[in-house]
Amino acid sequence: PEWKCVRLHYFHLLRLSQTDASNLVRSAKMYIWFTVLAGLAILSLSFLKTRSPYLGEDWAYMLRSIKLGIRLVKYKKNKPFYSILDCFLDAVKRHPSKIFIRFEGRDYSYEEVDKQSNKVARALQAEAQLKEGDTVALFMANEPSFVWTWLGLAKLGCPAALLNFNIRSKSLLHCFSCCRAKVIVVSPDLQDAVEEVLPMLREQGVSVYLLSGNCSVQGINSLSDKISQASDQPLSWALRANVHIRSTAVYIYTSGTTGLPKAAVVTHERVWASSFIQAACGVTAEDIIYINLPLYHSAGFLIGTIGAIERGITVILRRKFSASQFWDDCRKHNVTVMQYIGETMRYLCNTPKKDNEKNHEVRIAIGNGVRSDIWSEFLNRFGDIKVRELYAATEGNIGFINYTSKIGAVGRINFIHKFFFPYTLIKFDIEKEEPVRNSEGLCIEAARGETGLLVGRVTKRSPFVGYANNPQQTEKKRLRDVLKKGDLYFNTGDLLRVDHENFVYFQDRVGDTFRWKGENVATSEVADIVTMAHCILEANVYGVKVEGHEGRIGMAAVTLKEGEEFDCSDTYKQVVNYLPAYARPRFIRIQPFLEMTGTFKMRKVKLVEEGFNPAHIKDPLYFLDPEKKTYVPLTEEIYRAIASREIKL
């Protein structure tokens, strides 16, 4: 067609001047060359697409990452410091009437939340005499007051410790004490849990404030009445003048390899980095996010709520997850972004099928821990939703995002990611529970496609701050002399694998932690509680896989005191009174003795592999039956009912 066009133009040249004819010929040549180059470009792109099918997504993600990185560098250099609170205040100025939180039929605009946080800040300032740097513990459920109480504390320059509302007794006291807070703010429905430990709190001189108009319990102060009387006028920036990028913003609790939960120190730098995850996943200012994950976790608070502030969007907040109401909520509130953990996806896929399952506006799902088969089923049932699977740890310095549609991967690596967050996978001895080292004492890198322990190099750009007032546990997460003498890495405690296409896959956890119902469980903490039963001498706690479930459920191999029989009722009483539901060992295995390693560590690998099938295990087995409120002998009938999901775990 191009040459026919040239011939036609040539016949017209007879009527044109020589100059016009020359220009026309030149134009024709340029058109031909442009067409040829465009064709070559299309062929090249087609070739690249075949060889690198994720090239477009890689570049889009890298460009977004560079833009977000430039913003973070800018905030680091800003004087005065520009925090996420300042970002919220700017959002209030831009769209004061826009809905920030929708909760149980009530809407709260950005301006309303701002004013309410001013009132909370003033009330706490007057009653608790708070000043910049004082830590305040929040023992609250998912509710709007959680958000504006945190904002109020931020306006005073006070870090907040976000307590898990499932914990009780010893764990609650420990979590409260390790952040050295002198003030705790409590939801009314958690008053009973606080009353249990109130004498110890009073001994420590702790002030307890209940979000209620009145309280008759001595030692617990009502706060809602003071909040209602306080002014909603803005507070002076001078109250937080010394807050900077490396200041502590919040403490978020995480179960590590040993002991009770630890308070991970989350700086303002980490808050900003976490808030960018939504933007990196493609969330825009027009989106609406649905949050039903606990706000005491980094997923619900940092990625969900703080990320919503960074985007300036609306949050549909729910007290807890409901599979039966999930999609109705999404349709009702025009939700476009959802958060999930692996259990969320599985519960949704287990709901009865409906004709209108794909009738919704959700386009992005952000979360972690979903199995490949559940992922595929979720997409088949509920439509083309962009699942953005993450890998990260609250206290860690390395994370991944699967920004493609590759099912099963927790992330994808590229040169920009590795430049800013240097890491490596190293060979790990599962039996000895330690990295494999060469003759020079250095770790050995895992080969491409080989499972290895993920470690992130500690640098100025990717620091590891550690745990509040817990130098021993902080040091345990540091790994030295990894690739060269004197270097320092953060030990994630997770085994991952990178394939030939640069996709990252989570393989397993190592050490003494397992994950169930989206929560990390420290086995030594559970063992301490189990051995409180009068009949039990020693306990070896571990997590076992259950078909059709994400994570691992708790199991304990125990030995009995001489002359004692297993007391089902007393053991049940101890674990229920002192452990949250997700941490309770659902299976007990009675052994004559516990196997130890050469360094006197309890062996778990074989126990984990053997699981809880009574047909294959000669030791007596017991099952925690919540209906009978005791442990009962684990029969093959119960085992089959668990496998067929007749018994829900």
UniProtKB/TrEMBL annotation:
Entry's Gene Ontology molecular function annotations: long-chain fatty acid transmembrane transporter activity; long-chain fatty acid-CoA ligase activity; nucleotide binding
EC number in record: 6.2.1.3
UniProt catalytic activity: tetracosanoate + ATP + CoA = tetracosanoyl-CoA + AMP + diphosphate; a long-chain fatty acid + ATP + CoA = a long-chain fatty acyl-CoA + AMP + diphosphate; a very long-chain fatty acid + ATP + CoA = a very long-chain fatty acyl-CoA + AMP + diphosphate
Stored InterPro entries: AMP-bd_C, AMP-bd_C_sf, AMP-binding_CS, AMP-dep_synth/lig_dom, ANL_N_sf
Pfam families (UniProt xref): AMP-binding, AMP-binding_C
Recorded topology in the membrane: Multi-pass membrane protein
Gene3D superfamilies to which the protein is assigned, alphabetical: 3.30.300.30, N-terminal domain of ligase-like (3.40.50.12780)
SUPFAM superfamilies, alphabetized: Acetyl-CoA synthetase-like (SSF56801)
Ranges that cross the membrane: 30-48
Top-level lineage group: Eukaryota
GO cellular component term of the entry, any: plasma membrane
Residues in AMP-dependent synthetase/ligase domain copies: 90-412
PANTHER family: LONG-CHAIN FATTY ACID TRANSPORT PROTEIN, LONG-CHAIN FATTY ACID TRANSPORT PROTEIN 2
Protein family according to the UniProt entry: Belongs to the ATP-dependent AMP-binding enzyme family.
Name recorded for this polypeptide: long-chain-fatty-acid--CoA ligase
Species of origin: Lates calcarifer
Gene: zgc:101540
